[in-house]
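Sequence only, no structure available. Ideas?
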Amino acid sequence: MLPRLIALLCSLLPVTANAQARESVIVVEAYSGKILVGTNSTVKRPVASLTKMATAIVAVDWATATGTDLGLFMLTAPQTVALVGGPNPMNLQPGDSLSLRDALYSALLGSDNLAALTIADNIGRQILAKRGKTGDPVALFVAEMNKLAQFCGMTQTKFVNPHGLERAGAQGVSTAADMARLGIVTMRRNAINFMVRQEDRRISVTGPAGERSFRVPNTNELIGEEGIVGIKTGTTSGAGACLATCMDKQPLVRTKRDGTKGATPRRLVVIVLDSPDRYGHTRTLLTQGWAAYDAWLANGSPVKDPKREILSLPRE
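Reply:
I predicted one. Tokens follow.
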């Protein structure tokens, strides 16, 4: 019995090793851009529902630019939602209406693909009308997502839809490093920052039978742990298990050379793509990242090669 058990355990080891070898990882301090850990961080691959971070940013930026209230602007689910698979925590049906805020909550917390498509369709139509043009509203919205990626310096990223599902002949790709850039920018948006740290949210949808209410739990199992404030989960057969995580610590108060005191804000963003244990590995990476960051600060924050040691970030 014992030899058979040992043989079984040994047969499992290469699978685990191969899974870890495929995983892409990066840990970045968000304010300084300091790269603390990185493995396969520039390898292109699908990123599943981490895509929805870009969807949310484009939607919130549009609302800010147009003076639109997230809670008052109503969306109508297009007929095409019937063609989208994956999570549908609201049981959203074509013709249903809901607020942009509730659609964002369902997309970000519940990883709702139908909500993401509804956001893209409705805002895309608004942008087309503003520009006096006709065309595919979702394609226009996705084009705005790719413009966002360019602005963020995400040179290895291409979005093909607002939800992250893989489609034959049209697969979006990115890298862990680019997703870190996107995660940092995501958490700069106060509305999204507030949303993604919630453990759940009750939202409402109106259909032919009237209003119905749903509780959408956050799919991120780390939410509720100390310091964790987001960001997004993602899983598909092509992308594997993915996770974008943001953790804050209290600012570090230090005495400067002139005797005055200054506060250094501290925030880590961790990206794991195609991970065999996205939550467990993220916890380990957070511990490693903080230790490396604190040691870097204590050593005077040296940078020998900015292109390799610092993640380039947009200034907003």
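Strands lie at 24-29, 35-39, 74-76, 97-99, 200-207, 210-217, 228-236, 240-255, 261-273.
Hope that gets you unstuck.
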